[in-house]
Each structure stands twice: as structure tokens, then as C-alpha cells.
Amino acid sequence: MDKVKNDATRHRYEEVAAFVMELIETGTLPPGTKVPSLRTLSRQLHVSLSTTMQAYRVLEDKGMLEARPQSGFYVASSGPVALDLPEKSRPPMRPHRVSVAAPVLQMLEYAADPTLQPLGCAIPSPEMLSAGKLDRFLARAARLKGAEFNTYGTPSGEPYLRRELARRAIRWGQTLSPDEIAVTCGCTEALSIALKATTLPGDVVAIESPTYFGVLQVIESLNLHALELPTDATSGVDIASLERALARNAVQVCLLSSCFSNPLGSTLPGAKKRQLLDLLKRHEIPLIEDDIYGDIHFTEERPRPFMALDPSADVIYCSSFSKTLAPGYRVGWIATKKRLRQVLEGKFSTSLCSPILPQIAIADFLSSGGYDAHLRRLRRAFRSNIERMLRVIDEAFPRGTRVTRPAGGFVLWVKLPGAVPSDGLLQQALSENICFAPGKLFSTTGQYDDCLRLSCGHAWSDTLEQAVRRIGALAREWRD
Amino acid sequence: MDKVKNDATRHRYEEVAAFVMELIETGTLPPGTKVPSLRTLSRQLHVSLSTTMQAYRVLEDKGMLEARPQSGFYVASSGPVALDLPEKSRPPMRPHRVSVAAPVLQMLEYAADPTLQPLGCAIPSPEMLSAGKLDRFLARAARLKGAEFNTYGTPSGEPYLRRELARRAIRWGQTLSPDEIAVTCGCTEALSIALKATTLPGDVVAIESPTYFGVLQVIESLNLHALELPTDATSGVDIASLERALARNAVQVCLLSSCFSNPLGSTLPGAKKRQLLDLLKRHEIPLIEDDIYGDIHFTEERPRPFMALDPSADVIYCSSFSKTLAPGYRVGWIATKKRLRQVLEGKFSTSLCSPILPQIAIADFLSSGGYDAHLRRLRRAFRSNIERMLRVIDEAFPRGTRVTRPAGGFVLWVKLPGAVPSDGLLQQALSENICFAPGKLFSTTGQYDDCLRLSCGHAWSDTLEQAVRRIGALAREWRD
Asked: Does the model's ipTM exceed the 0.95 cut?
């Protein structure tokens, strides 16, 4: 251990990681080069193979190294992407009646079309979810427990799954009782029930702008209005704007992302989350938070949800396993300390209870410990996809294109320069069997027609890369 | 074949059945006696064993014979029950804001309590559903198709299941395309989506009185009002009353049972169904029909749903497999020829799509042909339960008790004489570990406090019989 400074407060693998990081940052190991093999570096530094392996994994998690199968570790080759971030959004600050149903259903039809390159809907590809193990748990649950569970469950869901969910929440510092959780049919039902539990028809919901079109659809179907708030592509919603809206009693409930918002990938920093919670508390306005992308963080630590920051706040937390494990299982959940009764009434009147065996299978999977290893693989894969996509956009899209740099999730938000309408672009792309999500779907205000969202949920391939390049080329043609 | 008149237009088994029926009706074979063994009667009538068996099964289906395991066939011993039917209901004809959430959630908690005798919620017991075969289909689907289906489905549901559902509808004379069907998370979600597709907050829904509390809960959660219509315990809703309400524009949508309504067990006869459809058409009012009990008919033929009677009518048909096969799978569906777009938007905004593998398992089960044999067993079992329950009520409940005689389903509606409050009765029953559903849950008007609903969804047992007798005894004590 002669070349590595020995520091009593650090683990050996951290020292090895720091050593390699220095080689990268000083340019000794430039982007794209192969780093020393595990065996070589271990010998050089007089540490065990497993210590070096741990160091490389840490650097991979930080995005500094990339593992290439059958080849070894390389310095991440993306380098800084030159494109600017999108500017903070400036939606007109008045409530809007929502009406996105027709184009949204159209998008879903595109998503179900296997002949289209899947850059449209934010759907992880089945092979990336590799849920074979989960399916085996479901098969086992059906065989062994089918008869026992062939009955209505309670609206709150299976206690076994609720216990596992409460246990997981400890990781982000949240103390939850299984009795504060209700299982839902995915995150969409969770958000719908949460809005029902906090609003009356005609009420105004404050949301990020742009925001996921599914949220807009839920708001529309409950006869609510949306107030879109200016939102920064990195640091999330603008609190001062929300404060002004609250001051004139223009908002009855807030619905925000916990982190890695869809489509911006933005995350409100912890201190601002607390500030927002205090603000809402003063105005006695409930907060619904959508944490569906929370487990897909590229940072070392998972950002803490609002609810974990202040257990006394009036928060309804919504999430699901649809982005990380099994969209087809439709298992989501709500956690709330203040609104459980309304939530259970809402669940009963929406779908009575959730299917039982999929809940048992997921609880078995969580309890087996398999979920965390799966998440580690998935985060690396999504992160690598995002970086490759960023590089291709950088190369192929028109000068002046802006693009987000999400710290989690698997979508990118692209703002095209000039007046390129993404709707027209989509029609051209579709004629070449390429799909993406046009910007206007993400707002009630008619904004974002010059934006589009690209999903990085599918395994990277040459065909996919060519599809992204083709969108860029089409956008350049519009410009010319 | 000397003793049986030979009629060229009848099958032999029908002639044998007619012969035995005459023996019963003339009193030659009184209630409760054993009928001749298959072998004996076959020899006497010079017909094959299988012909006699078929004849006995027909009589069993008509409720004239009962098969007792290891013993043979007996003349059904129930005989006519002396109790009167409940009078036609007379709810106050004005819209009511609905508020039943708290006592309904309480009922669900009782339903989940295994220490209580399960006469409360209308839940078929797992052993009567004997869904082992279905569970094996689910296990198989998870093993073989798990990866393929680990993605979001479309809001309309799996095409395979929709094809099977469309195929089944042919049995009741309904021509449906799979593209006119949307799969839901049980019948509750179907009803919720159907109401969303046809109403705005504050609208008035015309319903039967009394009606299933789950329907009331859905109406409440969508901020609608209920107009309860007078309803006959046999022949269903009073059309003249509906006509008067429509004439003064007091109703925006109708929600009625297709047959065997819960809790009355009433069915609008075909001619009256057509009359009602014409009336609604004149007023351009949509009809939502709930056919969840339709497959549990004690009559030879299944009553036809409204939708089958007039394909041009504005009908949203709702049903599910929860009462006949698998409440825990949460597979329901909507069929509609006029409102599909609104229904799909509703499904997307309520839960995006339904879990896929349970849909595949049920489609496999339907396609295997196993469902019909299962239904035949189930109908016999529910019918036998209903008859035993009626007999016990006849013997044990106070003089003046009225009770329904449903031709399908598995619930009985009991009206107690005098002013016995079923709420108070329930508290006493609960203290003796017996549960039933108190009448006031089934209305928004505060009526039916002297009524109660008994579920016959569990296999008959001495303990269950004692529980019913005990409720009767408690009711008699209130009277004294």
C-alpha cells in the first residue's frame, strides 16, 4: 500500500477509488481509455482483488468508469456534452382546464406498436427489467397460495407487502408503519386516489411545468384545473411562484415529483423541499408527491422524498414498481400519515382492492433481497443509456438544441432551436418508424411545441442510435 | 320405454325428467324422499343409465332434486317457504348526496375477520370457487410468458382475453367485437369508469332501491347524487317512476342491475327491459348495467342483459369474474358500442392498464372450456345454499319476516317485522361472532333500517346454520 496514502478514517477501497479518480482528473487516464486490470492494479497497490473491484464499482456508480462485458473497465467516454440546459420554464400563471386525452391515447397506441423505435413512452424494456425471478415468485405464489388468496383483499392491500414497503422506506430515513400504506394498481391509481382524497371538482392543482401527461390526464378526469409552475431543469419547481399563487388562494393541492421529475429530470434540493413543506403547512395545503423514479438515482445517495423530511406534514406519497421491476404487475402504493381514511375510501370506490397474487410475488421478491442487486444493474444501464443518448444528441441535433442532464430516471427533455414544431417532426419520424413524445403533451398551456421527450428505457442498439440521429437530422432539415 | 310417453319432438332424457317431475308434483315422491336409483329407474323405463343421469341433472338444475354425496338424488326438501316477499320499495323520490364510506369500511373489516361467521359481505368462499385450475394457468403464464408481458398493457386490456369475452357474449345473443371491450380492475373499477364516462360532478344517477353499498360508494366518490327508484323484489325497478323523473330532467344517467340485483335478487323481465331502453333513448340518457351476478342463474336460461336486447342503445355493460371465479384476480370488463373512447380515457386516468398475467390466466381458463363446468357446479351450490337459508329463516325468524326469492346470485334480503333495527341487531350478533349486512348500508335515504342482507356465498355448515338461527332468535327477542 505504498502508492496510496493510508488514512485511518477511510476504507481501503475508498483510497483505491480516490487514487484512480486522481489519474482520471489529471488526464493521466483520458476518456475512453482502458484502466488497469483488477489484477494489475491490485498488485501495484498491494491490495486484494476484491478491494480493487469494490473501488471500480464505486467509480462506475459515480459514472467515472464504464464496465464493458468481456473487456474490463474504461474511463467513461462521454465527456462533457456541450449543449445548454433548457431555460427555466415560464408557463402563464393561471389555472387551465386540462384536455390531453386524445393525443395521449394516440401516444399509447404508438407505444404498443412494435414496428416503431421506442423513444416515445417512458417504458423500460422487458429485457432490462429481467423480471424472470419475479415471475417465478408469482408462479410459486399461485401454486402454493392461490386458494388461500382467492378472495377479496382489503382496500389497504396485503399486510405482507405493506411490511416490506415500510421496511424499504427506512433506507431513506422514513419511519412508516405498514398501517400507513395502501397498495394501489400502479402509480396512476395512487395519484388518482390521492387527488380524490384532497380535492373537490373545480379545485386547482399546482404542478411542475412541463409535467408527465398521465398526471394531466388524471387531473382532467377528476374535473380539476392545473396551475403550472415555473420549473428549473435541474433544481425543480420555483417556490416563489408557488408562494405567490398560495397568497391569492389560487391552489387547493400541490402535486410534485419527489425527484427526477418526468420529463425534466429535475430534483428540488433537500433544503428547498423543507422550505416548500413549511410554506404549504402555513397555507394548510396538502402535498402529493410522485416518487416513481426515486429508485433510479445516479448519485450515490437516493434523494429523500418530502415525506421523509417532515413526518408531521400533510403529504400523500405515491410510487410504484412500474419503472424498476414490473409495469405489467400494476403494483403501486400510497403512504400517508394524515389522509389514510380518505385514501382507503378512494381505493374502495376506485377498484375495491388490488389483485393479491402479484402483491405476494413482489413481497417475496423484496424479502429475498433480489431487488437491490437488480436496482444496481438497472441504474448503471439507464445511466449509460442516458449518456450515450446525450452524446448522440450533441452530435446530431441542430446547433442551439438544449437538453436536460437528469441525475436519475431514464428520460431526456430536448428543446429544439428556432421554431421547429415537434408535432410536425413526429409525423415525419413516424413515417420512418421512429416514435418520440412531442412537447405539447406535457402541458395544458400550449407551450413546449418546440420540445420533445426521448425515452432511454430500452437497451442501447445501433438501430436505436440511428433513430436518434435521424430525429436530429429531421430537426436540422426543419431549420434549413 | 313403456311407462314414458314417446314424443318425437322430445329427447328421451326430457321424457324421463317429465315422468319424474309428475311423480313429484302429484306427491308420489314427497319432499325429502330419495328418488329411485339411476340403475333402478333406467331398468324400469328401459333407458340407458346416462339418459336417466341427464334427466336427474335437469331436475337438479330446476331445483326439484338435490344430489347428496355418496347417497343419491332426493326430492328437494325445501318446499314452499311461507314467508312473504318484501313489498316494493318506496324511497323518497329526490336526489341524495351519498355518504356511506365509514360504515362500509367497517363492513370490510368484518369481512376480513376470520372469527366471524361470514354472512355479511357478498364474498364467495375460496373453496366454492375451487380456482386451483385457474391458479395453475396463472403459474404457467408467469413461467412461460412473464418476460413477454413485463410491460405496460394498453388501457383496453389484453386482446386474447377480450376475444374470449366477446366469444362468451354470443351465448346471450350479443354480438360484440373485442374492440368494444375494455378490461378493468374488477367490476368496481368498471362502474367507476362508466360513471366517469357519462357524468359531470353534481349529476344525478338513478339507481334501484335498495342497492349495493359499493355502488353508493362509487357515486359518493365521484361527487354525484343518487336518485333511488321504487324496486320490486322480483321484477325490478319501477319504470313509471323513472319516466316521471326523466320527464322533469332530474336524471343524467341510469345505473341498474342486468339481473339478480344485489341485494334484492330482482330481475327486470325482458319486455320491461326493452321498454326501459326505449324510454332512455327518447330522453337521450345513457344506461350503465351491472351484470356481475348474471352467470349465477338458477333458471335454465341466463336472462339477457340490456345491451343484448338493443345494440343501438347507449349502454355501458359492466361485469367481472369476482363472484364466480377469482375475486382476488380483480378482472372485470366493460363492453360498450357508443362510449369506448371515454371509457379508455377513464381507464388510462384511473389505473393506466390492468395487470397482464391474471388476464392471460383467465383467458387461458375460458379458452380451455373449464369455466362452464365450474359454473354448473357453482350454480347448484349457491342455489342449494339459498334454499337452506330460506328454510332456516322460515323456521327461526319472527312471524311477519319477509324475505326475497332470488332466481340467481347468492344473497337474501330480509325485512324484519315491527321496528327491529338491524343496526342494533348487528351489534348483538357481532358480540356472538356473527356478521351480516345491516339494511341502512343499501340506501342513501335512511330507509331499510329494519332490513338486513344475508350472504349465502359460503359452503353450508352446521355452524353457519346455527348463526342464521341465532340472528332469528335475536330478532325475536327484540320483538318481545
From this structure: no
Answer whether residue A7 shows pLDDT above 60.
no
Do the Cβ atoms of B348 and A155 come within 8 Å?
Answer: no
Given B136, B350, B355, which is nearest A350 (Cβ)?
Answer: B350
Q: Is any Cβ of chain A less than 8 angstroms from the Cβ of B114?
A: no
List CB contacts (< 8 A) between B255 and chain A.
none
Query: How far does the CA of residue A163 sit from the closest CA of chain B (Å)?
Result: 18
**Residue A344 is nearest to which of B105, B148, B184, comparing CB atoms?**
B105
Asked if A131 lies within 8 A of B125 by C-beta distance, the reply is no
Chain B residue closest in CA terms to A150? B328
Given a contact cutoff of 8 angstroms between Cβ atoms, the answer to whether A108 and A435 are in contact is no
Q: What is the pLDDT of residue A80?
A: 59
Give the 3-state DSSP-derived string for chain B, with helices as H, strands as E and coil as C: CCCCCCCCCCCHHHHHHHHHHHHHHCCCCCCCCECCCHHHHHHHHCCCHHHHHHHHHHHHHCCCEEEECCCEEEECCCCCCCCECCCCCCCCCCCEECCCHHHHHHHHHHHCCCCCEEECCCCCCHHHHCCHHHHHHHHHHHHHHCCCCCCCCCCCCCHHHHHHHHHHHHHHCCCCCHHHEEEECHHHHHHHHHHHHHCCCCCEEEEECCCCHHHHHHHHHCCCEEEEECEECCCEECHHHHHHHHHCCCCCEEEEECCCCCCCCCCCCHHHHHHHHHHHHHHCCCEEEECCCCCCECCCCCCCCHHHHCCCCCEEEEEECCCCCCHHHCCEEEEECCCHHHHHHHHHHHHCCCCHHHHHHHHHHHHHCHHHHHHHHHHHHHHHHHHHHHHHHHHHCCCCCEECCCCECCEEEEECCCCCCHHHHHHHHHHCCEEEEEHHHHCCCCCCCCEEEEECCCCCCHHHHHHHHHHHHHHHHHHC
B341 touches chain A (CB under 8 A): yes
Q: How far is B303 from chain A (nearest CA, A)?
A: 26
Chain A contact for B322, CB < 8 A? yes
Pick the residue from chain A with its C-alpha nearest to B332: A351
Does the beta carbon of A105 lie under 8 angstroms from any beta carbon of chain B? yes
* pLDDT of B1: 45
**DSSP reduced 3-state for A70:** coil
Q: Is there a contact between A349 and B192 if contact means CB atoms under 8 Å apart?
A: yes
Q: What is the pLDDT of residues B53-107, one digit of tens each?
A: 999 988 887 778 888 877 888 887 655 577 888 898 888 878 877 767 778 888 8
Residue B348 touches chain A, beta carbons under 8 Å? yes
pLDDT recorded at residue A2: 45
CB-CB under 8 Å, A322 with B330: no
- What's the rounded Cα separation, in Å, for the pair A201 and B1? 72
Whether residue A333 lies within 8 A of chain B, CB to CB, comes out as no
* Chain A CB contacts of B200 below 8 Å: 201, 223
pLDDT number for residue A174: 83
- List, for residues B218-263, the tens digit of each pLDDT value: 999 999 999 999 999 999 999 999 999 999 988 999 999 999 999 9
Does A364 contact B at CB distance below 8 Å?
A: no
Give the pLDDT of residue B111: 86
